[in-house]
Write a structure and sequence with these properties.
Layout: H1 5-23, H2 28-45, H3 48-53, E1 64-68, E2 70-71, E3 92-100, E4 103-111, E5 118-124, E6 161-163, E7 182-184, E8 191-197, E9 218-221, E10 239-243, H4 259-262, E11 302-308, E12 325-331, H5 333-336
Antiparallel strand pairs: 1-3, 2-12, 3-4, 4-8, 5-6, 5-7, 5-11, 9-10, 11-12
Length: 340
C-alpha cells in the first residue's frame, strides 16, 4: 500500500519522536531536531501536530530546574515613575521549579532590584525577539515580529500573556494584590515568593501546561477630564485595558466520545449542553458538586518580571504600558539548551 505524503510525514514524525524519547529529548541536538521536525510537520499538515500528536514544544521532563532570569535594559532607567534599581549591574533573579504529580512547586527570589516595589511574574506564549530589544518609548521587550499572532499552533482567542498563578486562585483584578507570583521588595530591592501551582508549568500540550489567558479584554475609556466618561470615546488612544480571564474549554471542543469522561456537567440528553464550559471532574467538590472549568494550555516561551510603580496589580494582565516596567525575563530555551 502506498502512503500519501500526509500519512508518510505523520508516520515519520511519530517514529522520530519515539526515538527522541528513548535518547533523551533534553539534549540540545535532540531538542533542535524535534523543533525542526514539528515545524515541518505542522507546516504541511496545518496543525495536525497539536491535534493528533499533541507535542507543541521540546519536552521538559518532570523534575527540579533552576532558571536564571536575565535583566533588561530597563534596570538602568526609571520609566513610569518607578524607583531606581539599587545595583543595576548586580541584579539577580532566580526561579526554582519542581514538578511532581501534576503540580509545580515554584520559588522565586530577586536581589538588588527596585526597592519597595510590587512585582509580578507573567507567563508569555508569544516568542520573544532575540537579541532582546525595546521599541522606542516602550517598557516591554519586543516580541518576535516573525510571529505577529504567535505560533501557528496557538489559539485564535488566546492572549499574549497570562498570570503565573493557580487556576483555583481567587483574583481581585487589582482590588488588593492579585494571587500568583506576586511579592513586594524591601528597601534593598530584595524579595521572594513561594507557591504551589495546580498544574505542570513545564507541560507542552493543549491539555498539559500553563493555562492561557483570553485575548478579549475588559476596557475603559479614560480622558483628561473630571467625572465619568460621557458619550463615545474620543480616541482609541483613550482606551485603557482593565483585565481579562482564562481561555475556557467548552464541551463542544471536546471529542464527542470523551465528553462524558472529561466534562462533569455533560448532559447527553440536552443538545444545547455542548455550549457549556467543560467542568474538570478532578476539581468537583463531592459535597457541593461544584468544580472548575477546563482551561486551554500551551507551553510558555518566556516569563516576564514586571514592576508596578502605580502600586497595583491588574488581574489577568500586567496593565497598560504606563503602569508597569519589565525588568527581567526568564527564557524556556534555557531549560532545553536550545537558545539562539
Amino acid at each position: 500500500m502506498r502512503l500519501s505524503k500526509r500519512s508518510a510525514i505523520l508516520a515519520s514524525a511519530i517514529v522520530t519522536m519515539a526515538l527522541l524519547s528513548t535518547l533523551g529529548v533534553a539534549r540540545p541536538a535532540a531538542a533542535q531536531l524535534l523543533g525542526g521536525l514539528l515545524g515541518t510537520v505542522g507546516g504541511v499538515l496545518g496543525g495536525v501536530v497539536g491535534g493528533v500528536v499533541g507535542i507543541l514544544a521540546p519536552p521538559i521532563n518532570p523534575g527540579q530546574y533552576t532558571l536564571r532570569f536575565e535583566p533588561t535594559q530597563m534596570v538602568y532607567s526609571t520609566p513610569n515613575g518607578s524607583q531606581p534599581v539599587m545595583r543595576p549591574s548586580s541584579v539577580i533573579g532566580t526561579m526554582t521549579l519542581s514538578v511532581s504529580n501534576g503540580q509545580t512547586d515554584l520559588q522565586f527570589s530577586v536581589k538588588n532590584l527596585r526597592p519597595n516595589t510590587i512585582y509580578t511574574i507573567w507567563t508569555v506564549f508569544y516568542p520573544l525577539a532575540w537579541p532582546m530589544y525595546f521599541a522606542p518609548g516602550s517598557t516591554r521587550p519586543a516580541l518576535d515580529p516573525n510571529y505577529p499572532n504567535g505560533l501557528a499552533t496557538y489559539y485564535v482567542d488566546g492572549g499574549v500573556v497570562a498570570p503565573t498563578a493557580s487556576l483555583s486562585a481567587h483574583f481581585t483584578n487589582g482590588m488588593g494584590l492579585d494571587p500568583g507570583v506576586t511579592f513586594v521588595t524591601d528597601s534593598w530591592g530584595y524579595g521572594s515568593v513561594h507557591l504551589t501551582l495546580d498544574y505542570n508549568i513545564l507541560g507542552n500540550t493543549y491539555d498539559d501546561g500553563p493555562p492561557v489567558g483570553n485575548k478579549s479584554l475588559v476596557t475603559q475609556c479614560v480622558v483628561d477630564s473630571p467625572g465619568p466618561q460621557r458619550g463615545p470615546c474620543p480616541s482609541s488612544k483613550s482606551i485603557q485595558r482593565v483585565t481579562t480571564t482564562w481561555l475556557r474549554k467548552y464541551i463542544a471542543q471536546v471529542p464527542a466520545a470523551d465528553r462524558a469522561a472529561q466534562c462533569a456537567n455533560y448532559d447527553a440528553s440536552d443538545p444545547g449542553a455542548i455550549f457549556w464550559q467543560c467542568i474538570d471532574p478532578a476539581t468537583v467538590d463531592p459535597n457541593s458538586g461544584n468544580g472548575l472549568p477546563r482551561v486551554w494550555r500551551f507551553p510558555f516561551d518566556h516569563f516576564r518580571l514586571a514592576a508596578h510603580p502605580d502600586g497595583l496589580t491588574h488581574g489577568f494582565i500586567g496593565g497598560n504600558e504606563s503602569e508597569h516596567v519589565i525588568d527581567m525575563v526568564g527564557r524556556r530555551c534555557k531549560l532545553t539548551n536550545t537558545c539562539p
